[in-house]
Design brief:
heterodimer, A: alpha+beta, two-stranded antiparallel ribbon, 14 strands, B: mainly alpha, 3 helices
């Protein structure tokens, strides 16, 4: 009778153990779509079976274990950071590129071409007042095209500053959530699968915004740093970061009136150099890409450089000639020479200049009645260094500036595509590594090593073949 | 040889590289084996057509397709490199977790013993 009771108790315990396994499986199914959730499992252990010694055997349920692999989680976050960076660059550069037409049908290239054409037309009829009037109108149109493009880039720069501020706000908010989760973990909930899911979901969101590192502590809390060394969260303490505009004192500014730079700082005022993710891309755009176009305290910017050199050369040629009335010519373009970063945005044509003040006669010797307009129209296809900018015609120079923006956009789009694939791959690997036994994994890893070696050999050959194809077709 | 044929061959090689890249986004051992076959096919195709590329030297359409092929190669290369690094680092981590570090500071190798892996 005692054996029968023991068997019944054993069976009941076994059913309870299976019930717990079933509950864990049911919970996994229910949370299949929960962001950040990792499968849980309960291992079963055989109990000793020795009827003579009174051991009735059966099975015992082990403790609930998470199948989460933090190494795979970290790989997903790393790729998420890369995608955030490239995607933000692509999005922002798409907007910026709309200001840089390369077809020649609008904006600066169109205005430049029509002005150069008006110089040619004036050269054909140097005494025609309407030709001079057209020159003034088209010079004004070019000045406005410079103003519009530079102001649009300035506007994009300010918009980027705003986005930096918003992104920093989002980061602080997400870290605030993680701080709350840490407090829950420290209160004894460190094995809560739901809490773990929320923590990992927040970390994944955070990783697309910035390059963060997360370290899980034995007490169940997570410590988070940004850019490799600046703390965001340690235990129950959050360390907020901030963004601000600043004017670095060292090195001395070459353009003191130019805009300052965007700076990211940790809680203690230390600089965050490589924020990565969306934030890193926004800072790069604000501190590097846009200043290369509209300038800052350390550079004039290509648009300002072009506007200045073109205006200076046109003014120089006009003032070097004489009008039909024998008066010296007057300059038409005006800008503030004290602020090299505002030339493109504020350049204008002097409205007091009248058509008869435009000098057509080059004094020589020999005196040429249409010498000045001919010299001006030569700016289209320059033959002397004074008509060039950095060794190029003004149209070519603009093409290079626009091409650089387009090239950056193209690169970032391609990189974003690759990063998207890498993130998909990392998520797949995370899925593969959840809940795999070490024994099973060892076999898989050996297969992987062999397969990688084979693929690497083929890729090495393809590297040469694809490059050779380009080299042959280029020649 | 018409330009279209060269472009078609380059595009076909690119599609093979794209397919290899897609396989690598889910890098199971089986997918990697299939990837090897696809890469081999792409390599064979390019080797076969390479002598005829010179006939289309300077053709912008063919060059544009060659650049697309190169970009596709770069994507595939990056995916293989990243997946390889992932597993390589994981093997190192497993070694350090189970066997600690060697006297030179490297993770201890994971000893798998002698295994026979059978698959249906």
């Amino acid at each position: 009778m005692s054996n029968l009771l023991a068997s019944l108790v054993s069976s009941a315990n076994t059913l309870e153990a299976y019930g717990r396994v079933l509950e864990a499986t049911q919970n996994n199914v229910s949370n299949a779509s929960t962001p950040g959730y990792a499968k849980q499992r309960i291992d079963l252990y055989a109990l000793p079976f020795d009827p003579q010694g009174g051991a009735t055997g059966g099975v015992r349920a082990g403790t609930l274990q998470s199948a989460r692999n933090e190494y795979a989680e970290q790989a997903v976050r790393h790729q998420s950071t890369g995608l955030g960076y490239q995607q933000q660059l692509a999005d922002s550069l798409t907007v910026l590129q709309t200001n840089f037409d390369i077809t020649g049908n609008q904006g600066i290239p169109q205005a430049l071409n029509t002005l150069l054409q008006s110089f040619s037309a004036w050269g054909a009829t140097p005494d025609d007042p309407s030709a001079r009037q057209t020159v003034l109108q088209r010079a004004d149109a070019l000045a406005q095209a410079f103003n519009q493009t530079a102001n649009s880039v300035s506007s994009a720069s300010r918009d980027t500053e705003r986005q930096v501020g918003e992104t920093v706000g989002q980061i602080n908010q997400l870290v605030g959530q993680l701080q709350g989760y840490n407090q829950l973990a420290l209160q004894g909930n460190k094995n809560d699968a739901g809490l773990s899911a929320r923590v990992h979901s927040a970390l994944e969101q955070l990783s697309s915004l910035a390059d963060i590192q997360a370290v899980f502590i034995d007490d169940g809390s997570v410590s988070v740093t940004i850019g490799g060394q600046t703390p965001l969260l340690i235990g129950g303490q959050q360390y907020a970061i901030s963004a601000s505009l600043y004017e670095p004192a060292d090195p001395p500014a070459t353009n003191p009136l130019g805009p300052g730079q965007m700076r990211l700082q940790g809680w203690d005022g230390s600089d965050i150099a490589n924020a990565g993710g969306q934030l890193g891309a926004l800072v790069k755009l604000r501190n590097e890409v846009m200043p290369s176009l509209i300038g800052d305290r350390f550079q004039a910017g290509d648009l300002n450089l072009m506007a200045k050199q073109f205006a200076d050369r046109v003014n120089q040629l006009l003032t070097g000639g004489d009008t039909n009335a024998g008066q010296p010519g007057v300059p038409i373009f005006q800008y503030n020479p004290d602020d090299p970063t505002s030339i493109a945005s504020a350049i204008k044509v002097d409205t007091s200049v009248t058509p008869d003040q435009l000098a057509a006669i080059s004094v020589g010797p020999p005196t040429v009645s249409n010498g000045v307009p001919l010299a001006l129209s030569a700016l289209a296809v320059p033959t002397q260094d004074a008509d060039r900018i950095n060794g190029f015609s003004f149209s070519q120079f603009y093409g290079q500036v626009a091409g650089a923006v387009g090239g950056l956009l193209n690169d970032s789009k391609n990189n974003a595509d690759v990063q998207q694939s890498l993130l998909t791959q990392a998520k797949d690997l995370r899925q593969q590594y959840q809940g795999v036994s070490l024994d099973e994994e060892a076999t898989t890893l050996m297969q992987f090593q062999r397969a990688y070696q084979a693929n690497a050999k083929y890729l090495s050959v393809l590297d040469q073949l694809t490059q050779t194809a380009i080299d042959i077709l280029k020649t | 040889m018409p330009v279209a044929t060269v472009v078609e061959q380059l595009a076909a090689a690119r599609l093979e590289l794209d397919r290899a890249g897609d396989l690598l986004t889910s890098p199971s051992p089986g997918a990697l084996d299939r990837c090897s076959s696809v890469l081999e096919a792409a390599g064979r195709r390019l080797t076969e057509w390479q002598p005829r590329l010179a006939e289309q030297a300077g053709d912008p359409e063919a060059l544009a397709e060659a650049w697309r092929l190169r970009r596709s190669f770069r994507r595939t290369e990056r995916l293989l490199q990243t997946a390889g690094d992932f597993h390589c680092n994981w093997i190192g981590l497993r070694g350090a977790m189970t066997g600690g570090y060697t006297s030179s500071g490297d993770p201890a190798p994971v000893l798998h013993g002698h295994r026979i892996s059978l698959q249906g």
